[in-house]
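Recap slide: Probable peptidoglycan glycosyltransferase FtsW, sequence and predicted structure.
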Amino acid sequence: MKVIGSKRKSKMGEIDYGIFYTVALLLTIGVVMVYSASSYYAMFMYKDSMFFLKKELMAGVVGVIAMAVAMSVDYHKIKKYTAIIMIATIPILLAVFLFPGTNGAQRWINLGPLSFQPSELAKYVVVLFLARSLEVKGEGVKDFKTGIVPYLATSGFYAAIVLAEKNLSIASVIMIVTFLVLFAAGGRIKHLFGIVAPALVAAAVAFTVLEPYRMKRLMSFTNPWKDPIGDGYQLIQSFYALGAGGVTGLGLGQSRQKTLYMPEPHNDFIFSIIGEELGLIGCICIILLFVIFVWRGISVAMKARDTYGTLLAIGITGVVAVQSLINIAVVTGSMPVTGVPLPFISYGGTSLVINMTAIGILLNISRQTEGKDEFKEI
């Protein structure tokens, strides 16, 4: 036997097909369910049952292309552009205030038929910043003042802008993922769980107390029937959908709640329609796909060649995991109602394209894990 290429590394290895096929399945299910959930609403509002399907398919194609590009470009190249991306994201986040709000929230930049939601970008920009900076910080993360506070302040800055847009859900995702990445980077448990976690909870409570209407809305999940035509309406309709579906579901396309009972059923509460049409079995399959994704994402993080890759993989996996967990918990009445989409499944072009781009980066990390660039022996 002899060694070939001992002076030259081989090309990047294969992607993690567990992640690839899992995301492909979730995306496929998402496109099908967006059409099923939105067809009646789209016909009523736009006289075209395929209105939302066409937009989702377009976003899906752009997302797949973005994933393919990100998958092919060495993720280390993102480092030198991180500061530029962070700075550019701030005016983009603030630009939403120049456009009319929707349902009391200002989250979108509307340019004719196209719209963009900057908060979807912000959550991954924070991940890029954390991965790059914490790699340099090293063991310094164990110091609370210089290793924890600066990162919480930076993430909090972006979360505050998102919160000003009336988007509590994405702001929460940003802070939770920051917490997860700091923990993975070596942050001390006594700092994170003894100081940071209680402080975040206290801040959240104080915020809701200062704005009573928000507290009322958040706590409506404990008894939605107390206000069945107000704050509790959407959750009650979700319960009806999940209950009607039973174990096997009513059948694809057979949902009754989507016929103008559930407000915009193709968005944040699409999991309810999945439960109604595909039943408990369909819901379990969706949950298992997300579990597989998280498992493979953690595996990629653990095998990454450097700290930057590890933290980047954890951050990307964390965003998807936290969002899916919050969405399913909200739909099932396990936590306060917040408007967070189900990754790859809920309707939303910005969310889909940016999530797919992030998956491309994660797949690129998987191509450079330990053992992928070893010398060949024959």
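Strands lie at 3-4, 109-111, 114-116, 376-377.
Residues 10-370 form one domain.
(End of recap.)
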